[in-house]
Write a structure and sequence with these properties.
The chain is of the alpha/beta class. The protein is built from seven helices and eight strands, in the order E-H-E-H-E-E-H-E-H-E-H-E-H-E-H. Helix 1 links the parallel strand 1 and strand 2.
Amino acid sequence: MQFLVVGQWQGSASSRAMRLGDGAAAIAADLPRTATTVVDVPTGAGDRLETALARYTSVLHVAERVAEETAIASEPVLVIGGDGSSALGGSVALEPGTAFVRISGSSGYRALNRAQPIAAETAALRILVDRPTELFPSLPTVAPASVVLAGTRGIDEAEANAVTRAGIAHLDVDAATPDAIAAAVEATGADSVYVHVDLDVLDPSELDGLLEPVPFGIDGAALVERIQAAARGRRLVGAALTGFAPVDPDRAVDDMGVILRAVGALSAAARVA
């Protein structure tokens, strides 16, 4: 597996951006250098350009860079770092017959409305499934019937209803057992899979470095089981691991055990034919 690290934020005064950058750097330090490429995030806040997304130009730049690196990779790529929008560019790895599995505490399915711009990470799944044609024109569109959303908790009713109306298989944190995830992927009819893990699926007691911790998530062992279930019997064409944002760089080491177990599970899945 090849590793693509996103989130080396430079020149940004945003605490959120710096925390994501620190998280990406912490994970990168434990990856094999010969198999790791770093994508720098543009300096500055970016411009929405009259779109429904805040910082659209920055998000677009990262998506395009990730897509470029993914397209030329000789092995499946694991995109690491940044928020949930970092997974967008990795979607170019999807092939006909590929299921997209998002294991996350949040839906990523916020509505897109130009009158009220939102952060791309809150609509990352919607961007892949249902977006205006002018947004991310070089990225593929993912069929809702090939998507499995697992591990959510605390999402509002409007988002949950929108996911259901779209025809996406949705398993909340209580329903998202390994067997249920495997069955949902089987129901898509896919013979390959792309797995996006956003670390907000974990309980705050398990991972300190979360931007918006929400209680009653899963633990690290359960995450590994769910990654394995998502890829069971199928070729992993790529993956993403996002959302690590330590409060302080010195505290990142306390979270690395659970994160590296998830990295190991995704890497192992990529080695299975």
